[in-house]
Amino acid sequence: MKIVSAEEMRTIDRVTSEGFRVPSLTLMENAGAAVAKYVLSHHESAGRIAVFCGKGNNGGDGFVAARRLHERGKKVQVILLANPADLRGDAAVMFGKLLAAAVAVHSSEQLKNERVLSSLHADLYLDAVLGTGFKPPVSGLYADAIAILSASQVPVIAVDIPSGTDADAMRPQTGTIPRADAIVTFTAPRPAHVFGSLTTGPTEVADIGSPEEAIVSALQLNVITAQDIASLIAPRPAESNKGSYGHVLVAGGSLGKAGAAAMAGMAALRSGAGLSTVAAPKSILGTVAGFYPELMTEPLPETRKGTIAATARKRIEELAKGKSAVAIGPGISRDPQTAALVRTLFARIEGPMVVDADGLNAFDGRNKELNGKGRTVVITPHPGEMARLAGCTVADVQKNRLGVAREFARKHQVIVVLKGHRTLVAHPDGEVWVNKTGNPGMATGGTGDILTGMVAGMIAQNPKQAFLAVLAAVRLHGLAGDVMRESVGEHSLVATDLLRGLPSAFERTRGAAQQELVSL
Fold first, then answer.
1. Nearest CA among 412, 368, 360 for reference residue 388
2. Integer angstrom CA distances of residue 261 from 183, 279, 330, 451
């Protein structure tokens, strides 16, 4: 799903009305109806609802939501933070359609009088004060209303965006921004919806009538949604067999790091690959095989330190023939001989390849050799690995995650999965996708190995849709972590928990893809 700027959103609305003949009143009616529908489906027991409305179009959306909720039997009170005479255009029209009198508040003093205060005793608040067209800071009456919303003890649903937010912000914001327990926005998210940590609950995107052709953006930014990846995880044909879903080869592991390769191999299977082979130093092969009986294994020559030796090259190349995807790096170590082997294999193996962990560190200072032109290459660095590859500091990466990932993907013709809060997936053409699933509990050893295996496994199943397969793996990986957080918490979550969470992640994704509202 595209991410658009606030200005682009205004253009989309205008083009929808002028170019595609969808009246602006229809867009506002659909927006308010979507908010009301969300409230009715998620807060059915809320009998009293207070709707805070500004004088602009965001307030107009609030008027529609109030009317729709009133029609469904809810006791609704509209708090208009303006003189009704100041309303213009569509907002004025929708105000005139309200079925119950609004309380008009013109000043901060009036906001605190008994009549208004009595209206605030509700089970739910709707924040329809300021929309995405507003640029902070907010002051005066609106700031006081926002403070009331923030201090409330009842759920707050933001209409379009929490009031006072800079919709174009790429980072969490400070200042006068109200609490939002959920957000219902329209047509396409703005950057703050994705990067801003604006709510502890869901952010839902409603289609209000803008055709796909009208949703144009120069940002080259997208957010991964369940609808985007649903086609890759649909029910399988009855005549399926293990050969139908690809064979992944994982080359990795070393003395003391056998689990990394094993987890990557098993993650390929859990993500749906038909077969998975782990090639590892012969001395650790029993450990790898002992983790999961479903894995096939292949012993490789090793160095004195228990890492894969350079003499393993021919055998790995033989194993790679006919494989649907090769993952190289999990637990492979930084031994100079092994690092040289990684670079040689990267240059010689032609099929889809996923490079992670010390497989990436093998290119430290030699990133010109890491070029994927003409084939599918995915790299999955954390910020430290990205910094080494890009020749900058971790702080530089974290200050400009989007720019660093995009530039490296373009320059080296690889798909970059830059891990971290809001993992980024950068395509070689410069388009970037953002993932909103995942949580801090996943900041533990091995979760990256799980992701590597999942990426390889999804590509193995979908070789003709490799980029979409990467997006699917990234979203499902984070969602598996979210699933397991519910049962084990953030502090106790470990990497192999994700393998247990994947079945539910698949199920939830299929369910979400069928919903009318798109959940970010």
1. 360
2. 40, 8, 5, 12
By C-alpha distance, which of 261, 286, 290 is closest to 276? 261
Q: Please report, as a single letter, which amino acid is at residue 352.
A: P
| Whether the Cβ atoms of residue 56 and residue 62 lie closer than 8 Å to each other | no
What region does 112 belong to: left with phi over 0, alpha with psi -120 to 50, or beta? alpha
Placement of tokens 């009318």 in the chain: 516
> pLDDT > 90: what percent of the chain?
93
Concatenating the DSSP letter of every residue in 245-266 gives G-EEEEE---TT-HHHHHHHHH
Q: Has residue 54 got a pLDDT over 70?
A: yes
Q: Which helix (H) or strand (E) holds 184?
A: strand 182-186
459: left (phi over 0), alpha (psi -120 to 50) or beta: alpha
Q: In the chain, what is the greatest distance between 2 CA atoms, to the nearest angstrom?
A: 84
Q: Hey, how many other C-beta atoms are within 10 angstroms of the C-beta on 88?
A: 12
Q: From edge to edge, which strands make up the β-sheet containing 296-300?
A: 221-223, 432-434, 424-426, 415-418, 377-379, 353-355, 325-328, 247-251, 275-281, 296-300
In the DSSP assignment, the letter for residue 230 is G
Residue 372: strand, helix, or coil? coil
- Beta carbons of 398 and 418 less than 8 angstroms apart: no
d(C-alpha 281, C-alpha 291), whole Å: 15
330 Cβ partners below 8 Å, 6+ apart? 250, 252, 253, 257, 260, 261, 263, 264, 356, 357, 359, 448, 449, 452, 453
Query: What tokens does 478 get?
Result: 């984070």
10 Å Cβ neighbour count for 135?
13
pLDDT of 356: 97
CA atoms within 13 A on the CB side of 435: 26
Which domains occur in the chain, in start order?
6-219 (3.40.50.10260), 246-515 (3.40.1190.20)
Mean pLDDT lowest for which of 13-22, 68-77, 141-150? 141-150
CA distance 429 to 519: 26
DSSP-assigned letter for residue 37: H
